[in-house]
Amino acid sequence: MNRSVAILVFPGVQALDVSGPLDVFAEANRFLLPGDRYQLGLIGTERGPVACSNGMVLHPQRHFADIDASAGADTDVPGLLLVAGGPTLPERAFPAALYAWLRQASQRAARFGSICNGAFLLAGAGLLDGRTVTTHWNDVAALAARCPAARVEADRIYAQDGSLYTSAGVTAGIDLSLYLLAQDHGEEVALDVAKRLVVFIRRAGGQSQFSPYLTPLAEAASPVAQVQQYVLAHLTEDLTLDRLAAVARMSSRNFSRIFARDARATPAEFVESARLDAARVMLERSAVPLKTVAYACGFRDPHHMRAVFRRRLGVSPQQYRHSFGGPADAQAPMESSS
Fold first, then answer.
1. 172, 220, 267, 283: which could join 168 in a potential S-S bond, CB 3.0 to 4.6 Å?
2. Domain limits of the chain?
3. Assign residue 314 a region: left if phi > 0, alpha if psi is -120 to 50, beta otherwise?
4. Matching CATH topology for 4-197 and 223-337?
């Protein structure tokens, strides 16, 4: 198996997007036999040194144009190709030759993906269409607008869609790299590396990136925003479409259309997201029983809450609390079955 790992870098790249993932694989080499160790490198979008956004200067070993990624070529395309992000990346354009190379290289690499908003470079190459991805919380809306054919999930630390792997902002690249490492060599090696780096062992992928509560997307003065605020204040009520339409003083049909247009989600999706975010906060900040969390956040029962957590975050409420929450000894016995 090709154990080479390369990160594509460009002028203005975020240094931690590069050093974090590389350090995970470099530390892993301490625990691996010689034949299993990773070969690490940088690929530049331009020739010569690359200045990071913080002033650090990187020296990529190769320029992308020197790597023949065409089909059938005897090439050294890395087994894992990651694209780093940077503060100005969403506004930047790159040469068509780079996008073409990325398309070829992604087909030749066993795994490929992005750190933070490096997803914009993949989007420019047409590699995100029809895929489920994530990125930095501040760039989610822009990426969704740039690549409407992709499903951009704001509430993921990292996401896998086949051979495509994407991570949320900056330090989430470490979480993604630990996940990839565990795929290659098991959880024990990933745990050893996490301990050496003094980081949390591979966050499960579902922790909120930024805000503990859902941030309304509509204009503050609009009826849709007023309904969003109503939802956040009345999570335990029966928030049906007719009820929300009445709050907005619209017909149900017109309200549903306008809400989806302005909030980029259906009313039901928004209600579910709001309840999910509220439950995350309770699980992170308290040790009350899961049954209490479920009812306090408007879920029908703990089983309904568990189903939403599994579908939206990929973990159960119990797993989420174990990773991010309060003291385990204060948790209720019923959590063992949820």
1. 172
2. 4-197, 223-337
3. left
4. no
Out of 100-104, 238-242, 280-284, pick the least confident: 280-284
Instruction: For residue range 255-306, list pLDDT tens digits in order.
Output: 999 999 888 889 999 999 889 988 988 888 788 999 999 999 999 999 999 9
0.90 exceeded by pTM = no
In whole angstroms, how far apart are CA 14 and each of 81, 111, 170?
A: 17, 22, 8
Region of 297 (left: φ > 0; alpha: ψ -120 to 50; beta: rest) is alpha
Residues in the chain: 338
Which one of 1.10.10.60, 2.60.120.1440, 3.40.50.150, 1.10.10.10 gives the CATH number of domain 223-337? 1.10.10.60
Report the 10 Å Cβ neighbour count for 218.
20
CB 204 within 8 A of CB 315: yes
Helix, coil or strand: residue 9: strand
The C-alpha atoms of residue 161 and residue 138 are separated, in whole angstroms, by 22
Cβ–Cβ < 8 Å for 196, 31: no
- In this prediction, residue 127 has a pLDDT band, given cuts at 50, 70 and 90, of very high
Report how far residue 160's alpha carbon sits from residue 284's, in angstroms, rounded to the nearest whole number.
25
CATH 3.40.50.880 fits 4-197, yes or no: yes
Quote the CA–CA distance of 195 and 231 in Å, as a whole number.
41
